[in-house]
Amino acid sequence: MKQIAILVASLGKNVELANKLQELLKEQGGEAFIINLAELKLPLYTTAEAEENGLPQKVKELADKLLKINKFIFVAPEYNGTIPPAMNNTIAWLSTIGDDWRELFNGKAAVIATHSGGGGMHVLMAMRQQLSYIGMNVLGRQLCTNFQKHLSEKSANAVIENLLSIN
């Protein structure tokens, strides 16, 4: 069984959601590791930053790890109706690792999930749009939780089962 990368862009409830998804994956025979993008504390990506200082070592290490992965779960809160800066910045850096800016993502499966203080639907739409644009195959079913709508393990297990069934 190949590993699944769970990329979480938060220090709060989304970490709890990522941990729960990792637990459910394990129960279904999957193997996953969590990378907290907020904890990476990458410099802000700009072309000037990249030209002046090159690719940060943390990005190189992350890219080496993720190039081998073909299934991902992205877990992020909603920030002003869109993707949190930590996730967007990490994706920007990772898109600079080689000659093909989609290399790390193209053709790989992705599940999107959120625990958001608001509804959470805007971040899911934003993640779906961005991840599709960089070449990922985002599964149709997504996970949206918030303070009024708790995680349905039945739904989470169905999403995980779908992800695990992809070759």
Provide an overview of this structure.
It is a single chain. This protein is an alpha/beta fold. The protein has a single domain (3-165), classed as Rossmann fold (3-Layer(aba) Sandwich). 44% of the residues lie in helices and 19% in strands. It has 7 helices and 6 strands. It has helices at residues 13-27, 37-40, 47-53, 57-67, 85-94, 121-133, 153-165, and strands at residues 3-8, 31-36, 71-75, 109-116, 137-138, 143-146. Strands 1, 2, 3, 4, 5 and 6 form a 6-stranded parallel sheet that branches. The radius of gyration is 15 Å and the shape is globular. The mean pLDDT is 95.
Question: How do the helices and strands line up, and which of them pair or pack?
Answer:
Blueprint (H helix, E strand, L loop, with lengths): L2 E6 L4 H15 L3 E6 H4 L6 H7 L3 H11 L3 E5 L9 H10 L14 E8 L4 H13 L3 E2 L4 E4 L6 H13 L2
Parallel strand pairs: 1-2, 1-3, 3-4, 4-5, 4-6
Short description:
This protein has 167 residues and is α/β, with parallel strands linked by helices. It is built from seven helices and six strands. The chain has a single domain (3-165), classed as Flavodoxin domain (Rossmann fold, 3-Layer(aba) Sandwich), CATH 3.40.50.360.
Could you give a short account of the major beta sheet? 6 strands, parallel
Tell me the domain tally: 1
* Shape, principal axes of CA atoms: globular
Taking the alpha carbons of the first and last residues, their distance comes to 10 Å
Radius of gyration: 15 Å
- Tell me which CATH architecture applies here: 3-Layer(aba) Sandwich
Mean pLDDT: 95
Structural class: alpha/beta
Q: Could you spell the SSE succession in H and E letters?
A: EHEHHHEHEHEEH
